[in-house]
Specification:
Blueprint: E1 7-11, H1 18-27, E2 33-35, E3 39-40, E4 55-56, H2 59-67, E5 71-77, E6 80-85, H3 86-94, E7 98-102, H4 105-114, E8 119-124, H5 128-138, H6 143-157, E9 165-168, H7 172-189, H8 192-203
Parallel strand pairs: 1-7, 1-8, 2-7, 3-4, 8-9
Antiparallel strand pairs: 3-6, 5-6
Helix pairs in contact: 1-7, 5-6
The structure holds guanosine-5'-diphosphate (GDP) and adenosine-5'-diphosphate (ADP).
The site of adenosine-5'-diphosphate has 13 residues, from α1 and α5.
Subcellular location: Cytoplasm
Catalytic activity: GMP + ATP = GDP + ADP
Main location: cytoplasm
């Protein structure tokens, strides 16, 4: 029987660097995780590819997916829906591969309820003022929106104790190293290594 993969959920407040850290993790040649491409109703940005960055859907299509129970979780974020395709996640885990989700906190909460055996990692900023600086430097939001995001971040930060681990995103490479170490430790915990070791001894 194949061991099931680990469902890794990376979440945290807007602007903390989730997308940046995720891209860095997946830029490595030998990434051990499968990235679950999300569904969204937001319009593609320049350079974004359907099926690679997101599956771009109309609101009607997205609502039909909700109706048909095709999403592991979904949330409305700044006027658009975002959600995780449940069939892909289940099939990939069943094939023994780790699945990586990079989602906002409301969605992560839903996954926690449906999938408590997941590995929940909260990406935290070094400080609230650094978070604000990152939102400003990203330059994708107006001053008003940034203010709302920082307020929301206060609430979101209080949710970090619901996670298995908190990783500080001081430097992107450090955050990636910490995440990889956590996943490796989780595998050890789940005794996959022991099982493999036993198998090796059987073969020899
Ligand atoms: N709940 C949920 N959130 C998602 C999903 N995919 C992406 N997100 C989050 O949606 C938010 C907005 O994503 P996006 O529009 O790509 O903008 P950006 O990541 O802020 O540049 C981010 O916080 C993502 O982590 C998903 O499938 N479910
Ligand atoms: N460790 C870091 N140090 C400094 N800036 C960072 C770091 N991680 C991300 N950033 C910057 O912060 C901004 C927000 O990052 P982003 O990945 O879009 O956040 P999120 O996906 O959590 O909303 C971007 O301008 C990004 O380049």
């Amino acid at each position: 029987m194949i061991e099931k993969g680990v469902l890794i959920v990376l979440s945290g407040p807007s602007g903390v660097g989730k997308g940046t850290v995720r891209k860095e993790l997946f830029s490595a040649e030998n990434t051990a995780y499968e990235y679950s491409v999300s569904m969204t109703t937001r319009l593609p940005r320049e350079g974004e590819v359907d099926g690679k960055d997101y599956f771009f859907k109309t609101r009607e299509e997205f609502e039909a997916l909700i109706e048909r129970d095709k999403l592991l979780e979904y949330a409305e974020y700044v006027g658009n829906y975002y959600g995780t395709p449940v069939d892909y996640v289940r099939e990939t885990l069943d094939n023994g591969k780790d699945v990586f989700l990079e989602i906002e906190v409301e969605g992560a909460k839903q996954v926690r309820e449906k999938f408590p055996e997941g590995l929940f990692i909260f990406l935290a900023p070094p400080s609230l003022s650094e978070l604000e600086t990152r939102l400003v430097t990203r330059g994708t939001e107006s001053d008003d929106v940034i203010k709302t995001r920082v307020e929301a971040a206060r609430r979101e930060l209080s949710m970090m104790n619901l996670y298995d681990y908190v990783v500080e995103n001081d430097h992107v490479v450090n955050a990636c190293e910490r995440i990889n170490a956590i996943v490796m430790a989780e595998h050890l915990k789940r005794e996959r290594v022991e099982a493999r070791y036993k198998k090796m001894l059987e073969v020899e």
